[in-house]
Write a structure and sequence with these properties.
Blueprint (H helix, E strand, L loop, with lengths): L1 E2 L2 E2 L5 H15 L3 H14 L4 H14 L2 H13 L8 H12 L3 H11 L22 E6 L6 E9 L2 E4 L14 E4 L6 E3 L8 E12 L5 E8 L2 H13 L3 E4 H4 E5 H4 L2 E3 L4 H4 L12 E5 L12 E7 L2 H14 L4 E8 L2
Parallel strand pairs: 3-8, 4-13, 7-12
Antiparallel strand pairs: 1-2, 3-4, 4-5, 5-6, 6-8, 7-8, 9-14, 9-15, 10-14, 11-13
Helix pairs in contact: 1-2, 2-3, 3-4, 3-5, 4-5, 5-6
Amino acid sequence: MKIFGRVRHRPSPTWRQATDRAFSLIDDGRYEDAGALLTRAADLEPWLSESWYNLALLHKFRHDWAQARIAGLRAVALLDRPVGAPDWWNLGIAATALQDWPLARRAWQAYGLRVPPGTGERSGEESVRMALGSAAVRLSPEGEAEVVWGRRLDPARIEVLSIPLPSSGRRWGEVVLHDGVPHGERATSGAPGSAVYPVFDEIELWAPSPVPTWLVLLEAATEADRDALERLAADAGYAAEDWSSSVRLLCRTCSESRMPTDDGSAVTRDPHDHGEPGHPGHLSHLSRGSEGVRWTPERECGIAAPAGLVRGLLDSWVADSPGTRDWRDLEEVC
């Protein structure tokens, strides 16, 4: 058939059946069987960009980035529209996973994003990195999911700035590759200057962190005492996080919706809090979760710092106010 004078080929019924069946198999995690069907569909209709987009998507699910790049390049070569197609976004993710910076830059530009000039990843080469601000990322979205805060480096990567719990297997300062469509939002209070931050799903670890995670029990008489430790760690170039107040358990539905970040009271009223049966729990880091809650001096705190520094940080924190601060039971947990 013709649309505005251009010839377009309608996919055959066999192509549609193979493709529909393949995505049903993908939903069941049967990637090998789905791959055979999508390869057959591409053989049937090799001139359709959708054939190669679907294969690229499958390879993304499998984290087979070399094949995702090959299929993605074929998909974009057959596109009718020059800007904004999701084919370019998936190609950008694959290129970022492979550290193919010229292709990543080309993909983001073709999608319609403004990219700094250059050929490399970092400034000096100059950089595919962009000033995209803060966001949250859901670690292990198909497992024991945990939403943490981070800084977006580009459209496909986030540097983790929260201190993840040890069950996640992730560390502060790690860079994770993430998917393009947000699943949920985190919102500050409704006061002037409020903001909404997207929550992206992790695909895989992109760059590990050498900085270990420590668990320590604090005696902090006031919130100001707790805050002083977090500032001390930040001033040293590392991090401390009061897990007792910053981490809450949400049901999956709530985690993937818009949730407040500054006032923990809205979270504790969640009817599915603590993983009510039928609503799998997601851990979520809030920017501060202790407002309106009676302060208790004993706190579980995560610290991200080298082994040679962590005890000195804690001792310095106590020395600044020995009457209101103490620590015990320091343990490396990740």
